[in-house]
C-alpha cells in the first residue's frame, strides 16, 4: 500500500516526477503479524518457588510440551531437573520429586516431539540420558533412566531430537564432536568430527536431511548427518567476535539464520543461502549489548523471535523470501531479565486467544517461571485459518531404521482446529548412506546396551569371563539393569600396516616388536569381515589379538624405546640438536596418540564380544517359550 500524497502537479512537471519517485521509495509493507503483542498472565498461572540453575551455559535450561514443564534446577552434587505437570501452576512444593540420575550438572533438556512423556538430558558427566515420565507426573525422585548413551569424552552441551524420524537424537559435546544416536537401539549411528573447536548450536532443517552448526572457529557448517560430511561451509568470518553465536534453519527455504557478536561487540543477525555460503545474503545490526542472542523460529508464521540472556525484552522479525529477507515487527519489553526461555509447541497454543507463540520465561533474579503469550489481535475468538496453518503433528514420518537407510520424508501436519492430519508427504531417497565397502563413513562402536528385563532360564548366563574381563567382574551380568555404562567410543579406521615404514639415518621411526620382528598395526572395523569378533585376526580369537597388542604396544615398552632412541639421536646428531628435539616431540606425540587409539580399539573388541554374548542370551530367552509350546503340543498329540 503506497502512501497517498496531496501535492497536485501536472504529469510533465519536475515536481510530478519527484512525487512518483517518493511514492516508489516509501511503501508500507502489509503483514498479518505487524501488531503482535505479549501478554503476561496472572500470578496464579505462574510457577513460583523453583530454584532455577545459576549455570552460565548458553542453553535454555527449560523444555515444555502440552503435558509437562521441565526446568534445570540448582543442586549440590550431581545434576537434576524438575518435571511437573503443566497444570500444576502456583507455588511449587520444595519437596517435589526431581529427575536425578546424572553425576554432573545438567546442561540441556529436550522433550521428544512424538511422545510427550519422553525427555532427553545432557550433562557434564559426558552422557546423554533418556527418561520416561509417568502420565500423572512423578511421585518420587526418578533415577531409573530408560536409555544411557556414552560416547563423548567431554561434557555434552546440546541435544536435538530429529523433526521427522522417531527415536533419532543428535548431541554435541565439548570434545568437538557431534554424535547421531539411534535411541531405540541405544546405539550411535554416526560420529561427525568435522569441527575444529567447540560447537555452539545445532539446528535441523524441516525434513531432517541436514543440520546446521555454529562453531568457535567462526565457521557456519551445514552437515549431512547420514554421510557424516559437510554439505556446505562458510569461510572464516573475520567480523565475528569471540562470544558464542547461534544458527537456526529457516524451515525448508534453504536458508540459515545466525545471531552473533561482531568484533566490535555489536549484536548482529544474518541470513545465509546454502547455494552460496561465501557471504551472508543480509546482515543487520541489533544493538551493542553483551548478552548472547538466542533465536526461536516459528516455521508456521515465519516469525523469528530474538531473546538475549539477561535481557528483559523479546524482539521479533518476519522472515521473507525476498530482499531484505528480515523485517522488524516489534519488541515485547518486561521489567525483569530472563535466564532462558522454554517454547511451547504450536499444538499447545490457545487458538481462542489467537495465541501464535508461548514462551516460559525463567527469571534471572527470582525463583519464578512466567508464561508469556504472543497474541495476534483479532476481534472474534473463532478459528482463524490465516494465522494457524497446518502445524507439525505427533506422528513420526519415518522410523529410525527407515531414516538411517536413506529415506527422507517431510513432516506430517495436523490442523489446529480439530487435529486431523492434512497431508501425506512423499518419501524420497537421500544419497547412499553406506560406502562401496558396505561400511559407514565413520562406523562407531556399540556403547550402551538395551535393557533385558525378561526372566532368564537357568544356565543361560555364561559365567566365563569375557575378553579383557576378570572372573571377579562377571557378577554384574546377572543384574537386569536398565543399561550398562560402557567406555567412550572412537571412530573407525581401515587396516593400516606399518611394516615397511621409512627410516631416518639408521634409526627406525617405529619401535620394533619385543620378539624382534616388524609389527603390523591392525585397526579393525565392526563392518569388516576380518574383525577380531569373527576370529579373523591371526591368532584365533580376540584374546590372542589383545595379548599381541599388549605385548607390542605396552606403555613401558614405548617409554624404554623412546629413551633409547633419544640417546641415539643426541649422540649421532649433536650439531642439529634443536632440529632433532622438535622432530622427537612430534614423534612422541604420534606414538602416544597411536597408543591411545590401540587402547581404545582393544576396548572395542571387548565391547563387541560382550554384545555378541548378550544377543545370544536374548535369543536363548526367546527360544525357551517356543520350545515349551512344542513340547506341550507333542505331549497332547501322544
Automatic annotation (TrEMBL):
Family, similarity comment: Belongs to the WD repeat coronin family.
SUPFAM superfamilies recorded for this chain?
WD40 repeat-like
Q: Quote the gene name from the UniProt entry.
A: LOC111113355
Q: Does the keyword Nucleus apply?
A: no
Q: What is this protein called?
A: Coronin
Give the organism the record lists. Answer: Crassostrea virginica
Q: Which Pfam families match?
A: DUF1899 (PF08953), WD40 (PF00400), WD40_4 (PF16300)
- Gene3D superfamilies the UniProt entry points to: YVTN repeat-like/Quinoprotein amine dehydrogenase
| Compositionally skewed regions (Polar residues) per UniProt | 460-477
The reply on keyword Nucleotide-binding is: no
Domain (DUF1899): give its ranges.
27-90
In which ranges do the WD repeats occur? 99-133, 149-191, 192-224
Q: Which GO terms describe its molecular function?
A: actin filament binding
Which InterPro entries does the entry mention? Coronin, DUF1899, WD40/YVTN_repeat-like_dom_sf, WD40_repeat_CS, WD40_repeat_dom_sf, WD40_rpt
Using the UniProt annotation, give all residue ranges assigned to the region (Disordered): 453-480, 499-542
Per UniProt, which keywords does this protein have? Actin-binding, Coiled coil, Repeat, WD repeat
Tell me where on the tree of life, at the top rank, the source sits. Answer: Eukaryota
Amino acid at each position: 500500500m503506497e502512501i497517498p500524497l496531496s501535492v497536485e502537479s501536472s504529469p510533465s512537471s519536475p515536481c510530478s516526477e519527484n512525487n512518483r519517485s517518493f511514492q516508489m521509495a516509501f511503501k508500507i509493507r502489509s503483514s498479518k503479524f505487524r501488531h503482535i503483542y505479549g501478554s503476561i498472565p496472572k500470578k496464579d498461572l505462574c510457577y513460583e518457588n523453583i530454584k532455577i540453575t545459576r549455570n552460565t551455559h548458553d542453553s535454555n535450561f527449560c523444555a515444555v510440551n502440552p503435558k509437562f514443564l521441565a526446568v534445570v534446577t540448582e543442586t549440590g552434587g550431581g545434576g537434576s531437573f524438575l518435571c511437573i505437570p503443566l497444570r500444576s501452576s502456583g507455588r511449587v512444593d520444595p519437596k517435589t520429586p526431581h529427575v536425578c540420575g546424572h553425576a554432573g550438572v545438567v546442561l540441556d533438556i529436550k522433550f521428544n516431539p512424538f511422545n510427550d512423556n519422553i525427555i532427553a538430558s545432557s550433562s557434564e558427566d559426558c552422557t546423554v540420558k533418556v527418561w520416561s515420565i509417568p502420565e500423572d507426573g512423578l511421585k518420587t525422585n526418578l533415577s531409573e533412566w530408560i536409555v544411557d548413551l556414552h560416547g563423548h569424552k567431554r561434557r555434552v552441551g546440546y541435544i536435538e531430537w530429529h523433526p521427522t524420524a522417531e527415536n533419532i537424537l543428535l548431541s554435541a559435546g565439548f570434545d568437538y564432536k557431534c554424535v547421531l544416536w539411534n535411541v531405540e537401539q541405544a546405539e550411535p549411528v554416526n560420529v561427525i568430527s568435522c569441527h575444529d573447536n567447540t560447537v555452539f548450536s545445532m539446528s535441523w532443517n524441516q525434513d531432517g536431511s541436514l543440520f546446521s552448526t555454529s562453531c568457535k572457529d567462526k565457521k557456519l557448517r551445514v552437515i549431512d548427518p547420514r554421510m557424516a560430511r559437510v554439505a556446505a561451509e562458510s569461510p572464516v568470518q573475520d567480523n565475528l567476535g569471540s562470544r558464542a553465536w547461534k544458527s537456526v534453519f529457516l524451515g525448508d527455504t534453504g536458508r540459515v539464520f545466525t545471531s552473533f557478536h561482531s568484533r566490535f561487540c555489536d549484536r548482529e543477525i544474518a541470513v545465509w543461502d546454502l547455494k552460496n555460503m561465501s557471504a551472508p545474503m543480509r546482515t543487520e545490526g541489533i544493538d551493542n549489548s553483551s548478552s548472547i542472542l538466542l533465536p526461536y523460529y516459528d516455521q508456521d508464521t515465519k516469525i523469528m523471535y530474538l531473546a538475549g540472556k539477561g535481557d528483559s525484552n523479546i524482539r521479533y522479525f518476519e522472515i521473507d523470501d525476498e530482499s531484505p529477507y528480515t523485517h522488524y515487527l516489534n519488541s515485547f519489553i518486561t521489567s525483569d531479565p530472563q535466564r532462558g526461555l522454554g517454547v511451547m509447541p504450536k499444538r499447545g497454543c490457545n487458538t481462542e486467544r489467537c495465541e501464535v507463540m508461548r514462551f516460559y520465561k525463567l527469571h534471572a533474579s527470582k525463583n519464578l517461571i512466567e508464561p508469556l503469550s504472543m497474541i495476534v489481535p483479532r476481534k472474534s475468538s473463532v478459528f482463524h485459518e490465516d494465522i494457524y496453518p497446518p502445524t507439525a503433528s505427533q506422528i513420526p514420518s519415518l522410523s529410525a531404521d527407515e531414516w538411517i537407510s536413506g529415506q527422507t520424508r517431510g513432516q506430517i501436519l495436523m490442523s489446529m482446529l480439530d487435529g486431523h492430519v492434512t497431508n501425506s508427504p512423499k518419501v524420497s531417497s537421500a544419497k547412499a548412506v553406506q560406502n562401496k565397502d558396505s561400511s559407514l563413513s565413520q562406523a562407531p562402536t556399540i556403547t550402551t546396551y538395551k535393557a533385558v528385563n525378561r526372566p532368564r532360564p537357568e544356565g543361560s548366563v555364561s559365567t566365563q569371563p569375557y575378553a579383557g574381563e576378570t572372573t571377579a567382574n562377571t557378577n554384574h551380568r546377572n543384574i537386569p539393569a536398565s543399561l550398562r555404562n560402557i567406555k567412550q567410543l572412537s571412530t573407525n579406521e581401515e587396516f593400516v600396516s606399518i611394516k615397511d615404514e621409512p627410516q631416518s639415518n639408521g634409526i627406525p621411526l617405529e619401535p620394533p616388536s619385543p620378539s624382534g620382528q616388524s609389527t603390523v598395526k591392525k585397526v579393525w572395523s565392526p563392518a569388516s569381515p576380518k574383525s577380531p569378533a569373527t576370529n579373523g585376526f591371526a591368532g584365533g580369537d580376540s584374546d590372542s589379538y589383545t595379548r599381541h597388542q599388549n605385548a607390542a604396544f605396552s606403555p613401558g615398552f614405548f617409554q624404554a624405546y623412546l629413551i633409547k632412541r633419544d640417546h641415539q639421536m643426541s649422540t649421532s646428531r649433536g650439531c642439529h640438536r634443536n632440529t632433532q628435539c622438535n622432530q622427537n616431540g612430534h614423534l612422541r606425540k604420534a606414538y602416544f596418540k597411536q597408543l591411545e587409539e590401540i587402547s581404545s580399539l582393544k576396548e572395542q573388541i571387548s565391547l563387541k564380544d560382550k554384545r555378541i554374548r548378550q544377543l545370544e542370551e536374548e535369543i536363548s530367552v526367546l527360544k525357551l517359550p517356543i520350545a515349551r509350546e512344542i513340547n506341550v503340543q507333542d505331549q497332547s498329540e501322544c
